[in-house]
C-alpha cells in the first residue's frame, strides 16, 4: 500500500520547484544585507492590462522606500547581484551618478522569444525600487538603441 | 585511460585558446571608475546581440540591414564610460595601464585622432589573430571623460560608422576617411 502511495507521489516529488524570479532573489539579497523589508505596490494589477496590450507583461514591483544606498556604496550590490541571480541573467546596463546620488542596474534574461528585464534603481527621493517585467520587441529595440539614456530616463 | 587524458587536454587547450581570444576590460578601469562622478556600463553578449538582431530587423531600412550584418560578426559589445567633475581628476598615470593592455604584437593603432582644440583624443585599436580581425577597441579621452568601447569579433574599423550611436556606442565616434598615403597606422590630427 505504502509503495503505491509513494509511486503516486513520485511525479510530484520529482517535479522541479518553480524557479525563483529574479526580483525575489534581489529582494531577498537586499533584505538580508540591509535588514529592511520590502513593500509591494497596491493596485498594481490595474496597470497590467496596459502593459500586456503594448506587448509587455509580467510586471512585478517591490520598493524599499526607507533605504538609501548612495552611488559610492552600490558596489557591493553590483558585485553580488549577478552571483545571486545565476547564469540565466546577464548584466545589461549599470549606471551610477555620484553627482545626482542615484544609480541603476539592469539585467536581462531571455528564453529566445521574450526578454525579461530586471531593473534595480535607487535615488534619494524614492529609495530603492526593483522592477521585473517582460519587454516587448519594440521596447527592447528602443532600449538597445540607447541603453544608457534609457536607463537614466527610466528613473 | 590515456585517451581520456588526451581528450581532456584537447578540450582544455581549446577552452584556453577561446578565452585567450577574448579582450578583457582592463582591471585598472575599476580604479578609474571609483574616482569618476558618473559611471556607465553597457554589456551586450552574444545572446543579447542575437536578440538585438531579431528585434531591430527591418528589411526596408538599409541601416538596419547593415547593423544586422555586423551584429552577426560580433560576439559582444562592451561600453564603459566615465565622467569626472573637473579636468585633471585623472592623470596620464591613471590611464596608462588601460593603454598598456592594448599593446603587443596582436594590437595595432588603426586610427589616432588628436583634436588639440577640444583636447579630445580617440584611438582605435585593432586586434589581429591569424591574419584576421579579432576585435576593435575604441578609447576616447577628453579632459573630463573617458570612453572604452570594445567590439569583440571579426569587425573592421570601417564598420564603426554603422554602429556608432547605437548600443551605447557614442554617436561622435567615427572612422576618419582612409588616407591613401598612410593606409596603416594612420594618424589624423585635427587643428
Question: What is this structure's SSE topology?
Answer:
The complex is a heterodimer of chains A (155) and B (191).
Chain A (H helix, E strand, L loop, with lengths): L1 H13 L7 H13 L4 E2 L7 H6 L3 E8 L10 H11 L4 E8 L4 E9 L4 E9 L3 E9 L1 H9 L1 H8 L1
Antiparallel strand pairs in A: 1-2, 2-6, 3-4, 4-5, 5-6
Chain B lengths: L1 H19 L7 H8 L2 E8 H10 L6 H10 L2 E10 L8 H9 L6 E9 L4 E10 L2 E11 L2 E9 L6 H4 L22 E5 L1
Parallel strand pairs in B: 3-7
Antiparallel strand pairs in B: 1-2, 2-6, 3-4, 4-5, 5-6
Helix pairs in contact in B: 2-5, 3-4
Q: Structural class, judged by helices and strands of chain B?
A: alpha+beta
Give the SSE string of chain B. Answer: HHEHHEHEEEEHE
Write the element-wise H/E pattern of chain A from the N-terminal end onward: HHEHEHEEEEHH
Provide the number of structural domains of chain B: 1
General description of the model:
The complex is a heterodimer of chains A (155) and B (191). Chain A is an alpha+beta fold and 155 residues long. Chain A is built from six helices and six strands. The longest helix of chain A is centred in the first third of the chain and has 13 residues, at 2-14. Chain A starts with a helix and ends with a helix. Chain B contains six helices and seven strands, in the order ααβααβαββββαβ. In chain B, 31% of the residues lie in helices and 32% in strands. Chain B has 191 residues and is an alpha+beta fold. Chain B has one domain. Chain A binds chain B through residues 71, 90-99, 108, 110, 115, 137-138, 140-141, 144-148, 151, and chain B through 36-45, 47-48, 51-52, 54-56, 79, 81, 85, 165-168.
